[in-house]
Amino acid sequence: MSTNEFDEIDEAPENGMKALRKLTKTQAEELKALRTEMGKLQAVSRHSGLAEILSARNLDPRVAKFYPKDRETTVESVDEWVAENAELFGSGQTQQTQEQRSALSQSEMDGYETMKKLEAAEAHTEIDFKSRLAACESEEDVMAFLRDYRGPVALNS
Q1: Residues 94-137 pLDDT 10s
Q2: How far is the C-alpha of 122 from the C-alpha of 127, rounded, in Å?
């Protein structure tokens, strides 16, 4: 009995070419399957990396489907592409430069801060509401909770 495939080829010279062809075909099929799998993994990796970079720039990650396939997915390359296509994404979605931030009036900055506080309060209220509702153990508890629940009244913090 032989220890590897090549020993069998040497032991049976009349079947050697047939066995070699069979081995070559099997390895070619395995190689093709591995290449296909590698291509899928590379595509997933590229898409997730690209989506992460776009999200960091306040862009919807679904924009990644429009990114050129032949272009690198480095941060610099993506930034360059975003700058080239900024008018397509809308001016509100690109990152503001320091100059643009300082150009805001005090009332605009106060309004922005108030908006951030409202969003935080809304998120907190929703989490608080859901956790208290989940703690109810009976229908009566739920009805009492809904009857007595009051959301946040002031945003002075």
Answers
A1: 455 555 555 677 888 788 888 887 777 776 677 777 777 788 88
A2: 9
Residues 89 and 134 in one domain: no
Kindly state whether residues 83 and 38 are assigned to the same domain: yes
Q: Are the CB atoms for 58 and 52 separated by under 8 Å?
A: no
Domain that holds residue 77: 1-95
- Co-location of 59 and 33 in the same domain: yes
Q: Which two tokens stand for residue 35?
A: 């290449």
Reduced to 3 states (helix: H, G, I; strand: E, B; else coil), residue 105 is coil
Residue whose token pair is 């080829």 = 9
User: How many domains does the chain contain in total?
Assistant: 2
Phi, psi values for residue 90, rounded to 5°: 90, 145
- The whole-model pTM stands at 0.40
Structure tokens at 131: 């956790």
Verify that 76 and 112 share a domain, yes or no.
no
- Taking the mean position of all CA atoms in its chain, how far away is CA 108? 32
How distant is the alpha carbon of residue 64 from its chain centre?
A: 10
